[in-house]
Amino acid sequence: PLIRAMFYEFPADPHCWELQDQYMFGPDYLVAPILYPNQESRQVYLPQGDWESQSDGKRWSGAHTIQVEAPLSVLPVFRRLDH
After folding, report:
1. 16-31 burial string, b = 16+ CB within 10 Å, else e?
2. CB 3.0 to 4.6 Å from 50: which of 13, 19, 67, 81, for a disulfide?
3. CA-to-CA distance for 5 and 24, rounded, in angstroms?
4. How far apart are CA 3 and CA 5, in angstroms?
5. Does residue 29 surpass a pLDDT of 90?
6. Domain residues for 74?
7. pLDDT confidence of 73, banded at 50, 70, 90?
8. How many domains, the chain?
9. Among 56, 49, 54, 57, residue whose Cα is nearest residue 81
10. Which pLDDT band holds residue 81 (cuts at 50, 70, 90)?
């Protein structure tokens, strides 16, 4: 499927089995939508690997949770770099 639950792409990562508010778009893009009115930031779990924010180009190594700013004009999307 094009839109995948996190555990579908990362079945060995126990954190991915618990996530209900972010998903993979294809094998390379992680999407973490804003779900609540007036929410301007959120936590995003990045599975193992290297990731790049599509809004500002920042890069992270995965296997941990980050806090990202997400004003109304920004949808938190991260591209997997090492896939």
Report:
1. beebeebbbeeeeebe
2. 81
3. 6
4. 7
5. yes
6. 3-80
7. confident
8. 1
9. 49
10. very high
